[in-house]
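In the laboratory, one determines a bound structure by crystallizing the protein with its ligand and collecting diffraction data. In a computational setting the workflow is compressed into a single prediction: the sequence and the ligand go in, and a structural description comes out. We illustrate the idea with IPE.
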Amino acid sequence: MGAANELLARVKAQGAIPRHVAIIMDGNGRWARERMLPRPVGHREGMKSVREVVEAALEAGLEVLSLFAFSQENWQRPALEVSALMSLLEEYIAKEARELDEQGVRVVFLGDLDRLGPAQRRAVDGVMAQTAHNAKLVLNLFISYGSRAELVRAARLLAEDVAAGKLSPAQVDERALSERLFTAGCPDPDLLIRTSGEMRISNFLLWQLAYTELYISPVLWPDFGRAELYKAILDFQSRDRRFGRVSA
Ligand code: IPE
Ligand code: IPE
Ligand code: MG
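The predicted complex, in structure-token form:
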């Protein structure tokens, strides 16, 4: 706690806070395996880390926190693990919705939500509606999400608009496409964190990460907390973002 507060003070003293931090929350299974526990125990422990990074994001003053919680590919995991994750999703919403709302967090779920079961879908729609008016922090939760599918969907929406005569082919530009992504209206991530040391993107935000700074942490997700988030932001604050130009 003390160490995290010290890191937060350093983050604030550094000045520029990233507007948008995205996290690939990885390593729950390995955390459980190291303790000879079933994988869902790791996922449950990971929920505590979600709580901590949301608190930390509020304290640091981020505008957007994006969390990759369940990928389109994760549907291929064993049925027992998938159903454990889906129950945890419901439990997370039931436990946290009120506090998130009170803290001024707008909760947004992004992904192919049609694949969720009716109970999860109700919970997801409910918390989105309940918190829609909030403006302190946007919490993007990606579930049943794949970036290629998101891009294909955007392409299809563009094609439909062109076919309907609402858009000419010449009007298909970067803006027109990004407006048809789930993340429409949201600034691109400034910083992407992946936990558990894995050096890959795993079909997350392929378009939006074009100029995002990457930070790979060896820490497994259930061990990731406030201090770890602040360490990542401090590292980000030391980077020279050139966007293809030369430094000032
Ligand atoms: C991340 O942890 C959570 C999800 C992908 C749902 P993993 O379950 O991928 O954990 P590892 O990578 O097997 O350790
Ligand atoms: C990426 O983690 C998806 C989420 C964190 C939700 P995975 O564990 O599914 O990714 P791979 O299989 O290691 O690429
Ligand atoms: Mg993993």
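The mean pLDDT is 98. Keep in mind that any predicted model is a hypothesis to be tested, not a measurement.
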